[in-house]
Amino acid sequence: MPTTIPGDPMTTSAAVASARAVPAATTTSAVTRAPRRIDPTYYWMVVPVLALFAFFITLPALVGVFFSLTNYAGYGDWKFIGFANYVNIFKDPAILQSYIFTFVFALTATVVVNVVALAIALGLNAKIKWRTGIRTVFFIPMVLSALVVSFVFNYLFSNTLPVLAERLGFTPLATSILANENLAWLAIVLVTVWQAAPGATIIYLAGLQSVPAEVYEAADLDGAGNFRQLLSLTLPLILGYLVINVILGFKGFLGTYEIIVGLTGGGPGMATQSVAMRIFSGFTGGDYSYQMANAVIYFLITLLISIIQLRLIQRRGVAL
Amino acid sequence: MTASLLPQRTTRTRAPRTSAPEGYKINWWLTALMLVASLTVLLPLYFTLAMALKSPDQVGTGTGLAWPNPMNWDNFAEAYVATGFARAFMSTAFVTVFSVLGALASSSLVAYAIARNWNHRFFRGSFVYLLSAMFIPFPVIILPLIKQTAILGLDNPAGVVFLHVLGGISFNTLLYIAFVRSIPVELEESARMDGATTWQVFRRIIFPLLAPMNATVGIFAFLGSWNDFLLPQMMIADPALQTLPVVQMLFQGEFNTNYSLAFASYLMAMAPTLVVYILAQRWVLSGVMRGAVK
Questions:
Q1: What is the pLDDT of residues A271-317, one digit of tens each?
Q2: Is residue A70 helix, strand or coil?
Q3: How many domains does chain B have?
Q4: pTM, whole model, 2 decimals?
Q5: Mutation test of the interface with chain A: which of B85, B110, B121, B132, choosing the one with the most A Cβ atoms within 10 A?
Q6: Structural domain of residue A122, as residue ranges?
Q7: Cβ of B166 and A230 within 8 Å?
Q8: In chain A, how many domains are there?
Q9: Backbone angles phi, psi at B22, to 5 degrees
Q10: Using the beta-carbon criterion (under 8 Å), do B47 and A156 form an inter-chain contact?
Q11: Which runs of consecutive H residues, i.e. helices, occur in A168-274?
């Protein structure tokens, strides 16, 4: 599958992701080297890795597409059934529910993570006391296992919070929100923000530090207020970093797994079961080929989103 | 600087400034706000520690936020035995060490070869091919992958190493290529004049010069590998070889109510990366920042 993706989105992604380096390279001396004979050593550096990559990443993808067209249960005999799995998926309310949950969750998490991360980055970049110490604290979640963190929060949500709420007489929270079908996903958003905000903050800090101080001095002279400066100076100047954060974040949150396992395990009922969890269930659930078809659809949707995101970036002409 | 020219604006300090040694006024309100906000990170950690030091009686039905008196240090020893900590630690360390080494070696080599032969179709094609992995969500390949590794006898930590290295290769190669391009080719050419082979050039000249990027890639590989749950959980067949995060699932059983033991175990699973981060935080953050800028 990966080899057959049309070349356009891939090359543009390369250009976006390493936007700084790729255009520069064409002007450096690398290009002026004699293009004739290539030292075979260079092939030895690349080919073994390419072979392993093809074997461990591309091959499973192709095998998966193949089995999505069969009725393979994960064991025993199988035969081709054409697109029947795909047709059935579109009629399956449980699958639809997992897609809705996954996308609502990923969108919410992307927005909240970016707002929080930008706020932290602005705070860390301002003139505050004990900046190094505060920065150290804020980046701690980045080094911790998401699963273990979720176990800790699991106890907080299901024991500590209800006890506190009861003492304060705040009844809506007196039962665990993890057991509430309508609220459990908010707990997952919260832990995701706790866990993912530092990574986004780092990217915003890099962006804020790329803005020259003179720009703000000029705005000061023009009498622009703090909020005005943030809105009309800082945000447009770090737009590229925001785009990167949104793309990386959304993509990552679509695949959220550990935090859900640690908090709700997909429950209550199937309220917080993500697409990824559904697909993994194909391994033990006897619906291997069915979940492979689900995986292929999931891949096509994420690919489509990537292409749309890249188009939007190109149209805006964001220079990273 | 400008603030001192405009008396009515001397109090404004909120807008980010990179550096302004003159007129550097500390914003105490914002400092207080940031300190309060940092409690969102510190409180769950304090809670973990407090829980880990409680005896089962002290856990009781309270919030769990109170500091235990007396402290019950036995939890750690018990958790050490219950989870087979030593074995899980060794397994995690094995996966992490080889994933980091593999990531450094493979992506720097690939990036060097591609960057120096950018005008050649094969190498440019390889780059595009490797990048395509960034478009494949992991759930898409996981089911066939697990079958494949099981057939090959790679349903163990070694198999996890393979996948950690290959899964990160797109991103790491991207980071390295940008860096290799900033190294002037002239440096290599003089070495080649003296008869150095491409391997020697890479090992003696290029790889040492890549040191800052090695740190960045190494940190990401270390954190990703040490904390990974999905791949070890799905791939490693023998429970005795499971890694630290997966072992924590032990406390999720229906019948388990020994929370203090569970939290002692969680703390022990968190401690290694936390300690390394606190000790080397300046170095870690600069490394990660470099990854963000590129």
A1: 888 998 888 888 777 788 888 999 999 999 988 988 888 787 776 65
A2: strand
A3: 2
A4: 0.83
A5: B132
A6: 90-315
A7: no
A8: 1
A9: -75, 140
A10: yes
A11: 184-209, 213-221, 226-229, 235-237, 239-254, 258-263
